[in-house]
Task: structure prediction
Amino acid sequence: MPPVQEIRRSSSGRVLWKNLRPVPAGWRSGPVPVCDLAVDGERIAWLGSASQAPAGFQDVPQHDLGGALVTPGLIDCHTHLIHGGQRADEFALRLEGASYEEIARQGGGIVSSVRATRAADEDTLFRQALTRLDALRAEGVTAIEIKSGYGLDLETERKMLRVARRLGQARPVTVRTTFLGAHALPPEYAGRADDYIDLVCGTLLPTLHDEGLVDAVDVFCEGIGFSLAQSERVLRSATQRGLPVKMHAEQLSLLGGTALAARYGALSADHLEWLDEAGVRTMRQAGMVAVLLPGAYYFLRETRVPPVDLLRRHGVPMAVATDCNPGTSPTASLLLMMNMACTLFRLTVAEALDGVTRHAADALGDAGVSGRLAVGHPADFVVWEIDSPAELAYWMALPRCRFAVRQGRIVFQSGR
Ligand code: DI6
Ligand code: FE
Result:
């Protein structure tokens, strides 16, 4: 396929993309019909069978895509993209027989990432996260959620969230920030988890929210994280401020975080390896998204998979995300996560694609992205160099993105 030259738009910002094949929701193996797509400014104005372009689009610039497969822009709805350093030595130690607990006792684990993040200056964190963001963008990612949670004090949580905002200014990508102050207990609060939750609810969240740095709030509700009672305090102070909430829940044990999150109208519960059928029902009733994170499952060599059959049977939408973080999912490939969601969790290709598009958008709430190719929705889409939609989940970290469009403009082009 020839490279797309600079995208031409009419003075009114109109463009007609011709001869493309949008992968339909629920795609099952088989051919995808060709159509045209009209963009007006930042939005999709029309999508239809070729040569029937609506009035006002007859004389606008046209770009022929030669029958290329097209999907919505990809959305990574759960990341810890910003963190100081890496934990490869910890990985090596584990392979030599050390347990996660031993490593943590020797000052490793999540606390070592907190130390590295506190020590790093803002520009360093920015540069390192930018590399990961650009890797995601090269796969067609046009929107991303980024959590704090490796600072655990005001200064460093602020530094992380400021870096997240800067990333969204430096690159044409939608960034949604999530305050995850309740990610782990900082060493200076050892044995005083309730006091730390006082700090989270009384100082960190109000201050950072007032500074405009927080779009949503998350909690790590787990035996090694925070209890139900502590998690509830965080959810309550977030919802009192009108902030949407979500939760790391039922990852390593069945604690009931999902039901708690549902009571606070959470957008999503994430991980969910231990979720039971009652929890699945609760999620369905509360209209929550189940965010599946196969990278963490893989990297921790978990053996218990999330209850995908139950989620499917009860009609709970499933999203798929990278969980990009230095401890349990050191990856910046959402396409690889699609592959793993299929191979490890047995999602279908269509479910994996929904998981990184419309269901990921729903997991972000009202984020200005929809993950859908439909009239009136943002013109965020990816043009792929593939013959079958199945290739989206088939290749293992071999991105086949030809170019990506966000809000009507090309924001990534392969080989450029
Ligand atoms: N669940 C996880 O798997 C990561 N955070 C979380 O809440 C672990 C983060 C880390 O080990 O650095
Ligand atoms: Fe996570």
